[in-house]
UniProtKB/TrEMBL annotation:
Taxonomic lineage of the native organism: Archaea, Methanobacteriati, Methanobacteriota, Stenosarchaea group, Halobacteria
Biased composition, class Low complexity, residue ranges: 301-311
Pfam families in alphabetical order: Bactofilin
Matches recorded under InterPro entries: BacA/B, Trimer_LpxA-like_sf
Acidic residues bias: start-end ranges: 320-340
Entry protein name: Acyltransferase
SUPFAM superfamilies attached to this UniProt entry: Trimeric LpxA-like enzymes (SSF51161)
Positions of the UniProt region annotated as Disordered: 288-340
Superkingdom field: Archaea
């Protein structure tokens, strides 16, 4: 990530993210911009939230958890490593921390807290201020690569191949709606509840959205995804990929529909409406690549088995020929009776 880029300039939902019994579950980090409302509980690796963020359920973080000033959590907070709570954070449940706890003034934890490491009561520096000061010092001493690594570490999980879940500032996330004023990207194999509202929308492959999609700009829906609602855009185009099912209507300026897609409602376009046979997403299809690799490995295994069978068959054929030759030689040595 470049220094000048903003990691929270869009809603980004990584591959495999699901909503399970009012919990938003992902394998990577969760980063929430300030003044956002998340009515779900959150389960991820590390959880970071800006000022005045509201969580409607519990937080479970395998790594660290950092909540800035005036943030609220309606249930328990369980942290696998260290926790940092800013001034006037409110937790309406219990706080359990496996590591160290850095806690600010006037923090309200209704059911008490427990930490296995050091407990420091002070005002932790707000996350954004801390990052700004730290990055400024790195840049001042000419450590631009180190600064870029710090930014990358915030948006990448410690484990391999896990992208973070990014929620921009001022967003609303609930069972009813996902509403942001930025572009939004939903990854592959996601299962989400609620209507999605964004500037632009890209939905990945093989997912399910229990709601509608609405954007000001373009909307793209990848292969095999099911949208249990409408797909509409105010002034953009809609592109529907192969195997997509839309249970509602499709409304846009221009509509590009794959020949293998299914629309249960009506389609309305003020401009062009056409059929196509192409993919609508530019990003790599990891599922197809994995299937191709598996097929290649299977083909290699089958070729190896066939080669082994041929070798065994050849050895067996040579053995049979040798046995036949020995039998013929034995027959020539036997005496032959003469008949008068």
């Amino acid at each position: 990530m470049r220094i000048g880029s903003d990691p929270l300039d869009r809603l980004s939902i990584p591959d495999g993210t699901t909503v399970e019994e009012h919990d938003l579950v992902t394998d990577g980090n969760v980063i929430v911009g300030g003044q956002s409302t998340v009515d779900f509980g959150v389960r991820g690796h590390s959880v970071m939230a800006g000022e005045r963020v509201s969580f409607g359920g519990h937080i479970e973080a395998e790594g660290d958890c950092r909540l800035d000033m005036w943030s609220t959590v309606d249930d328990n907070v369980l942290v696998g490593e260290n926790a940092y709570l800013g001034e006037r954070v409110q937790i309406d449940g219990e706080l359990k921390v496996a590591g160290d706890l850095d806690i600010g003034d006037d923090v309200d934890i209704e059911d008490g807290f427990e930490a296995n490491g050091w407990i420091v009561i002070r005002n932790p520096m707000p996350t954004i201020v801390f990052l700004f000061v730290y990055l400024s010092q790195l840049l001042r001493v000419g450590e631009e690569e180190a600064a870029e690594e710090v930014l990358s570490s915030l948006t990448e999980d410690d484990g391999p191949d896990h992208d973070p879940l990014l929620i921009p500032r001022g967003a609303t996330v609930s069972d009813d709606r996902w509403q942001v004023s930025t572009p939004a990207t939903i990854g592959d194999d996601c299962r989400l509840h609620g209507n999605v509202r964004a500037e632009e929308l890209t939905v990945g492959r093989d997912g399910v959205v229990f709601g509608s999609l609405r954007a000001r700009g373009d909307v793209a829906v990848g292969r095999g995804t099911e949208i249990k609602g409408d797909v509409t855009t105010r002034s953009g185009d809609v592109r529907i990929g192969p195997g997509v099912t839309v249970w509602g209507d499709v409304v846009a300026e221009n509509v590009a529909l794959h020949e293998n897609a299914t629309i249960d409602g009506t389609m309305r376009a003020s401009g062009e409406m056409r059929m196509h046979t192409d993919e609508v997403l530019d990003r790599p299809d990891e599922t197809a690549e994995a299937m191709a690799e598996a097929a290649e490995e299977l083909g290699d295994d089958q070729a190896a088995v066939a080669a082994a069978d041929e070798t065994v068959a050849g050895e067996h054929g040579e053995t049979s020929a040798e046995e036949a030759g020995e039998a013929s030689d034995d027959g020539d040595d036997e005496p032959v009776e003469a008949h008068e």
